Amino acid sequence: MNTVVISKKEYQELFEKKLRYEYLCQIIEEDIFASPPAKNAEEIINKFKQTKLYKQEFLRSLEKGLKRSSYFKK
To answer: What CA–CA distance (Å, rounded) separates 70 from 63?
Structure first.
């Protein structure tokens, strides 16, 4: 058996890169071009507001974008 000795810092860097790679693989396996599950723009905006993580400016921009989208037009 061959043994390789690396520093703890190198090990942590390799481990983090492995985790990022696995995360990217999971994302790629998912259908990233699938349509959103909800077709109601107001419902989506309300869910974003409920999280209280987003600024009003972003929420207005999101609302404007969703209203422009042909996917959400009635």
So the answer is: 13
Averaged pLDDT, groups of 10, the chain, 74 residues long:
91 95 86 75 91 94 90 70
Burial (CB count <10 Å: 0-12, 13-18, 19+), residue 4: exposed
HEC per residue, 17-74: HHHHHHHHHHHHHCCCCCCCCCCCHHHHHHHHHHHCCCCHHHHHHHHHHHHHCHHHCC
pTM of this prediction exceeds 0.90: no
Distance in Å from the first CA to the final CA of the chain: 66
